[in-house]
Amino acid sequence: MSVLYIMVPLAFVLAGGALIAFVRAAKQGQYDDLDTPALRAIEDDQ
Are the CB atoms for 27 and 21 separated by under 8 Å? Predict the structure, then answer.
């Protein structure tokens, strides 16, 4: 039972960190263009 006092807050801290990282990446434009990188991988080299 005492392990829950450590694991539950740790889970909230990790989830909060993941949420902050996602929001920061979205604000910086990481998810703006999702089609071009996939198309660039199948294009022929010049």
Answer: no
Residues 10-23 pLDDT 10s: 999 999 999 999 99
Tokens for 21, please give them.
């990282």
- Name the band, by pLDDT with cuts 50, 70 and 90, for residue 42: confident
Q: What are phi and psi of 44, to 5 degrees?
A: -75, 145
| Sign of the CA dihedral running 13, 18, 22, 27 | positive
Distance, CA of 25 to CA of 31 (rounded, Å): 8
Percent helix, strand, coil in the chain, to 5, is 65, 0, 35
pTM reported for the whole predicted model: 0.67
